[in-house]
Amino acid sequence: MLKGPFSISLRLTAWFCGIFFLGWVLFGTAMWFTLKRTLKDERYQTLSRRMDRLQQVLAKSAGEDEDDRTREFTEFARATGNGLAEVYRVNGQRAFPSPSAAAAAFKWPDVQRIGSERFQHVTSGGQPYWVLLRPDSLNGESLVLFAAAPESGNLVILDSFLKGLLAAAPILLLVSSAGGYLLSRKALTPVDKITAATRSISIRNLSERIPVTNSRDELQRLAETCNAMLGRLESAVLQIKQFTADASHELRGPLSFTRTVSEVALRNPKLDAQSRAAFEDIVVESAKASELLEGMLTLARADSYSLDAPLEQVDLADVVEEACGMARPLASERSLTLLINTSLASPAIVLGDFSSLRRLLWILLDNALKYTNTPGSVEVSLRVTGAKAVLSVSDNGIGIAEADLPRIFDRFYRADPSRSQVEGSGLGLAIAKWIAELHHAELTVASAEHMGATFRVAFQLDDSPSDGQRDRASVRDGLVRAKP
Ligand code: ADP
Questions:
Q1: What pLDDT score was predicted for residue 5?
Q2: Residues of CATH 3.30.450 domain(s) within the chain?
Q3: pLDDT tens, 330-377?
Q4: Is residue 424 in contact with ligand 1, taking CB distance under 6 Å?
Q5: CATH architecture of the region 8-156
Q6: Which of 83, 329, 373, 436 has the fewest C-beta atoms lying within 10 Å of its C-beta?
Q7: pLDDT of residue 480 exceeding 50
Q8: Where in the sequence of the chain do the CATH 3.30.565.10 domains occur?
Q9: CA 272 / ligand 1 centre spacing (Å)
């Protein structure tokens, strides 16, 4: 199944991660600013409360003499905020001496420009501070009260928050991509199942259907639509098969009639030479047409038979003997050597149908004899290796071009006929392949142009007891019915 860079699950995962990442960045930024604002507000509240208390201290000391007021202010300032407080007159001079060295060295904002309360950011001694300035009056004199608090605590909190946010990024990305991938895979697994099921359906098993889950979603509709399409295809293919079978069947009668009539006519000794030649042509051509029809009828019926059926026990050595017996006269007629090699250590017993297997070997032998020039040789061999019996037919004939090899088992396919000048229908190997499949055997070919050809059929040996012929008659019936 496609899992490349363009698979839907990977694209969904990328989208999922992208959206998750964007959301995380927006959320983190919003949280950072909210935290910053909250910390600033909290600093303002602290300084504002301190300022309220300073105002109360100053108001209480209004009637006291200068020294007492100064002492009370200094005590208050030292007790709160590390002495970072000042009281200025509007002309820019201190109303009281600085309560601490830190306050004295602090870079307080310019007093003259202050009209109302102000909360501002100040950098003093290279450190950031928040400063609250509040206008006030004492005994009729206008004053400005100052209080400062360092911002460094806030910055540490903000810094930790940012670091935490960034440290969580790879983990969150990993979790989101793994989660996204798993979710999309889970959601798309039914698509893979539909694809696999659709792939496994061919013209041989068009009656099979894709499993439909009762999920009431797009995937259920897709599976149902595919099944409906398979149904339409199945009935169309059935009609074509039926037509081919019917047409082949119907044509057999007139064809054999024509042939018989021609053969009867040829027996007439008074027949003139021209008519004789014409009748002989009719006999030859109608024989070819009969062979073609027989092949078509076999294949038209072939697709409807099951490949899973158990068969009878057949000794392949017997199959070789019979098929070679049929081939011997043909080989000597064409001056070709027919070699048979069936020396076996153990019998080559397979489950199958004897006459179908003989037909399979005959097709291979007939081809080998057809496509080998005189003086050539054809060798039939039967070997037992492990759990397999391998039947092979080799020749040193014209061979098969590399480009033709993948197609020679197709129906009606013939490699360039001008190379061999041999008549044929192009159906033999398609029938041979079908028979091999019916026996769960593998038919392969090895060949190169002008280098001869070797066809191999590898069968699974039958290891069941010899009385295993029970219940198999019905299958044999199926095969027999499949033959013309
Ligand atoms: P046919 O022999 O009637 O043409 P087949 O289906 O039996 O049809 O074979 C298909 C094609 O495969 C043949 O036309 C031929 O080109 C090629 N072929 C089959 N067997 C051999 C062989 N032994 N040597 C060379 N070519 C072969």
A1: 54
A2: 8-156
A3: 999 999 999 999 988 889 999 998 989 999 999 999 999 999 999 899
A4: yes
A5: 2-Layer Sandwich (3.30)
A6: 329
A7: no
A8: 312-476
A9: 38
**Does any ligand 1 atom lie closer than 6 A to the CB of residue 414?**
yes
How many of the other CB atoms lie within 10 Å of CB of 156?
A: 10
Tens-place pLDDT, residues 72-119: 999 998 888 788 999 998 888 888 999 998 898 999 988 766 678 899
Ligand 1 contacts CB of residue 378 (under 6 A): no
Q: Is the CB of 292 under 6 A from ligand 1?
A: no
Ranges of CATH 1.10.287.130 domains, the chain: 218-303
Are the C-beta atoms of 316 and 361 separated by less than 8 Å?
no
Any atom of ligand 1 within 6 Å of the Cβ of 408: yes
The answer, yes or no, to whether any atom of ligand 1 lies below 6 A from the CB of 176, is no
Nearest protein Cα to ligand 1, atom 25: 399
Instruction: Verify whether ligand 1 is closer than 6 Å to residue 299 (CB atom).
Output: no
Token pair 């064409």: residue: 334
Q: How far is CA 404 from CA 63, 70, 262, 420, 434, in A?
A: 120, 113, 38, 14, 19
Q: Is the CB of 360 under 6 A from ligand 1?
A: no
Residue (of 390, 251, 387, 252) closest to 316 by Cα position: 390
pTM of the model: 0.58
Half-sphere exposure of 202 (CA within 13 A, CB side): 3
* Token digits of residue 452: 């001869």
Q: Which CATH number fits domain 218-303: 1.10.287.130, 3.90.226.10, 3.40.50.720, 1.10.3210.10?
A: 1.10.287.130
363 CA: nearest ligand 1 atom: 7
Please choose, from the candidates 465, 402, 452, 408, the residue with its C-alpha nearest in 3D space to the C-alpha of residue 433: 408
Of ligand 1's atoms, which has the minimum distance to the CA of residue 372? 24
What integer pLDDT is reported at residue 158 of this predicted model? 93
The residue to mutate among 410, 411, 429, having the most atoms of ligand 1 within 8 angstroms of its beta carbon, is 429
The one-letter amino acid code at 221 reads R
Q: Is the CB of 61 under 6 A from ligand 1?
A: no
Rounded to whole angstroms, how far apart are CA atoms 117 and 136? 10
Find out if CATH 1.10.8.60 is the number for domain 312-476.
no
Ligand 1 in reach of 367 Cβ (< 6 A): yes
Peptide bond into 109 cis (omega under 30): no
> From CA 219, how far away is CA 357, in angstroms rounded?
45
What spacing in Å lies between the alpha carbon of 408 and ligand 1's midpoint? 7
What HEC string does 259-328 produce? Answer: HHHHHHHHCCCCCCHHHHHHHHHHHHHHHHHHHHHHHHHHHHHHCCCCCCCCCEEEEHHHHHHHHHHHHH
